[in-house]
Amino acid sequence: MKKIFFIFSAICLGGVMLGLGIAAGNAVFVQLETGVETIAQNTQSLDATITTVHVNPLIVPLDTEEPCFVEIIARARPSVVSIDVVAPSGRSSRVEVPGSGSGFVFAGDNEYVFIATNNHVIENATSITISLDDEEHVSARLVGYDRASDVAVIAASRTDLRAAGEYAIATLGDSDALRMGDSVIAIGNAMGEGQTVTRGIISAVSLNIEIPDVHQRLNLNVLQTDAAVNRGNSGGPLVNQNGEVVGIVTAKLIGSDIEGMGYALPINDVRHILDDIIEVGAVRRAFIGIRHDEISEFMRDLFNFPSTGILVQEIIENSPAEDAGIEPLDLITHIDGQRIENFADFQSVLNTVRPGDEITLGIYREGERMEIRLVLGSRMS
């Protein structure tokens, strides 16, 4: 996994980028001027007897399969909300500052509607309000969050939200079906100025990124898109050509030479997290029952291991690992055939399975390779 510096989409580029843009624009302008001058000089040297023939441009047929984004937005936008929060300043708990983000309605019952967003949008908030039309604000409360996946759920009164405007429950799509090049749109409270829409494509699928966080480093499996992502887009939906939510916009990569690299959590990865938060206020996670560490290249060479992986240091009593016969100093190199080189790989695979699933661990033990089947347990987080 390539470790580079990511920030959540609550941060945007400032004056430095503006200056670079102006400089780049001047460079292009100079280049164009030079090109025009050269063409003009060459034209003067041509034989005056040459006749120019003007040809009508070819008619380009419309692609009947190209999605109508006006219709897509009309289907998806009623589920999208703008989120405004007040939270303590990072430097002082006595000073509170406003913040903004986005979310979408994904479920409801007779009393409440439930809204998905990012944990970093509402973390430590003392006040949360939502809006459908960026004018009428409705109070919301935190239902639960999962810091490891940067997912949170907030709830608002169904009656209050209906009084503020028409809303709809989002249709969730299949993020596993996405391909590089598929068209997507991002809808969100960009820059805290109200809902806007940006269009792009899926640039990559199943990427693993590492994001510095106040509490820990987050290792997230994400989709990459070139749809513009700005401060306030965090928590908003990434929508496919059918108007279905296929991702939760979460982060962007910034730099003076970087453009169009936004990231979203695949909806298939977080469906169970959202459901668990509604049902029990926490997340049921797959549990093996080991304490472990990564094997670096140095340790691999020092102890003559065949590869990098996860080294089992201790077995937790009465755990699935104990029942399956895993032993201390076992090196886990594969899970269900997928290569495990480091903690990020290990956690990424565990995030895709559920308690009660049976998995196959590829183990290296005392010079021999073996496979061990294990039924995953459950832990709350």
What would you say this structure looks like, in words?
- The structure is a single chain.
- By secondary structure, the chain is α+β, with helices and mostly antiparallel strands.
- The chain has 8 helices and 21 strands.
- The strands form 4 sheets. A 6-stranded antiparallel barrel has the order 8-9-10-13-12-11. Strands 2-3-4-7-6-5 form a 6-stranded antiparallel beta barrel. Strands 15, 16, 17, 18, 19 and 20 form a 6-stranded antiparallel β-sheet that branches.
Short characterization:
It contains eight helices and 21 strands.
Shape by Cα distribution = globular
Alpha-carbon distance between the two ends: 25 Å
Subunit arrangement of the protein: single chain
Percentage of β-strand residues: 35-45%
Helix content: 10-25%
Q: Which whole number gives the mean pLDDT? A: 83
Biggest sheet architecture: 6 strands, antiparallel, barrel
**Which strands sit side by side, in order, in the main sheet?**
8-9-10-13-12-11
DSSP summary: helix tally: 8
**What sequence of helices (H) and strands (E) makes up the elements?**
EHHEEEHEEEHEEEEEEHEEHEHEEHEEE
How large is the radius of gyration? 26 Å
User: Total strand count, please?
Assistant: 21
Structural class per helix/strand content?
alpha+beta
Which consecutive residue ranges, at least 5 long each, have pLDDT under 50? 10-54
